[in-house]
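$ run holo --ligand "2-oxoglutaric acid" --emit tokens
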Amino acid sequence: MNIPLIDISSLYSDNETEKLKVAEAIDAACQNSGFFYIQGHPISNARINEMRELSKAFFALPEAEKVKIDITLSANHRGYGKMKAEQLDPERPGDIKETFDMGLNLAPDHPLIGPDRPLYGPNQYPQQPADFQQKMERHYWDMLELGKTVLSALAIALGIDKDFFANKFEHPLSVLRFIHYPEVPQVNGEKHIGAGAHTDYGCITILWQDETGGLQVQDTTGKWIDAPPIEGAFVINIGNMMARWSNDRYKSTAHRVFSPSGRERYSMPFFVEPDFDTDVSCLENCCAPGETPKYEPISAGNWMIYCFNNTYAYRAEETA
Ligand SMILES: O=C(O)CCC(=O)C(=O)O
Ligand SMILES: [Fe+2]
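-- output --
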């Protein structure tokens, strides 16, 4: 299994032949490992450094400050997730990481908010620094544009209307997340897992990771393959929603963060997820005539809720 590095710059040009080449490279990667790197995207190094500093400053706040915006206080799954709040691999203890999640910031009285769509609502932000919200939201929208650009190539690759995905992000469920994996000393030579083995829930994930390394992807034989950091590149992987849409033409592959060194690490995934009510059912050309699709239709939002309830103890208790 290999994880190719794909230059997507021609997706920003008018050259249809070159776009098609990018789409074909992405198509092959999504069928093979479900993972690829991108370069030639418009997110600058300066921006990444700015977000990196913001993340570091946030996690360095006193625990008492961070828990004021704890994710358990949010009706729509936003805010600070403390150590072990998330258990990605049900076979292992909670993840040794802390997180901050933000998304589309809707005022509490927005008409989309209600018991039928519990993932919509306001964000929770720390009080300091003062420009935290502005920086987060600017990056959120820029990452969403990047996500939509990659999805336009996926639409070409899947042979569907090139705007099929583009018009499904009016009120996206997409989430920008900071993750901090603290330094963990090795005990009895035991290897340390920061994020347990899991697949992602949404369409695609666009991941920035720092220089530490530790991301691993499982191949079809069960072996773990390193997906090391490449400067200036993002790692992109297919999530379950895209696997459902494509009837598993595209693979939602298990991955984890494994840290033999136990060294501190920061990462920043952007989960590209469409509007709550988006119908996720098998694409017409991903199922042979007369064949039954592998997955039942479901709305994007209900799928996300189902997934969150399985990985967060606090949510499982609420819904039990
Ligand atoms: O931290 C990483 O590199 C990966 C995190 C991840 O897989 C996730 O949040 O879904
Ligand atoms: Fe993941």
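-- notes --
Residues 179, 195, 200, 207, 209, 215, 255, 257, 267, 269 surround 2-oxoglutaric acid (ligand 1) (CB under 6 Å).
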